Amino acid sequence: MADRRRTWRWHRSPLRRRCDVVEAVVLLVLSVLLAAGPVLAGALAFGSTWQTALRQEQTRHSTPAVVVDDARSAAPNPAVRPSNGETTATVRWQEPDGTERTQTVPLERGGEPGDEVTVWLDSSGAPTEAPPGPVARAVQSSASGLLAAAGVGAALLLARHLARERFERGHDRSWGREWMEVEPRWARRYHS
Q1: TM spans, by residue (predicted)?
Q2: In this structure, are strands 87-94 and 100-107 parallel, antiparallel, or unpaired?
Q3: How many domains does the chain have?
């Protein structure tokens, strides 16, 4: 009996209205999207983040450099210094063609002038951050996949809720109009 009540919109019936069919189709489509959408969005976000991290790993390389000047120790105000332990320093390194380059770059650990450090360069030779390692890549990819799935799921749940609410308001207005037509006839029949 419960199954018949849930599926009455799909069967031919003199009580079935066009708005009932539209409501059933819209809610069915939103339910299917709610089942598949978050999984698909999560998988796409995971794959995209993973591929970006792999591309960074392939296009970045490290090179040894020598600290020329420790910019952090030269900063006059300690409030200007970064609090995460990262420092900036002027370093010198040699490119594959033999030319020397000098530039101020962020370093994970500070260094005194003359210390050897590792600098990461992108494909054009500009200093950049180190690519994420395998664990960081997995964590970042998983987090982006979960966030995308949660976002799409929440948006679809909200859309489904708003659609149901709108359909219910339409039913209430329709039933109100029908009652305004029928109620006077009923009132005369029972009050005469």
Answers
A1: 21-46
A2: antiparallel
A3: 1
Q: Helix, strand or coil for residue 9?
A: helix
Give dist(CA 149, CA 153) in Å, integer: 6
Q: Does residue 112 lie within any of the structural domains? A: yes
CA angle (84, 85, 89) in 5-degree steps:
120
17: Cβ–Cβ under 8 A, 6 or more apart, which residues?
none
Strands 116-121 and 100-107: unpaired
Q: Measured on CA atoms in the order 25, 26, 29, 30, is the torsion positive or negative?
A: negative
Question: Is 180 contained in some domain?
Answer: no
**Domain range for 100:** 60-124
DSSP state of 96: T
Compute the residue count for the chain: 192
Q: What is the full per-residue pLDDT of the chain (192 aa) written as tens digits?
A: 555 555 655 667 776 777 778 888 899 999 999 999 999 999 999 999 999 999 999 998 888 888 887 665 444 444 444 555 567 888 898 887 778 888 888 777 767 788 888 888 888 888 888 899 999 999 999 999 999 999 999 999 999 999 999 999 988 898 888 888 888 887 776 665
Q: Quote the CA–CA distance of 114 and 68 in Å, as a whole number.
A: 6
Which residue type occupies 15? L
For residues 156 and 137, give the distance between their C-alpha atoms in angstroms, rounded to a whole number. 28
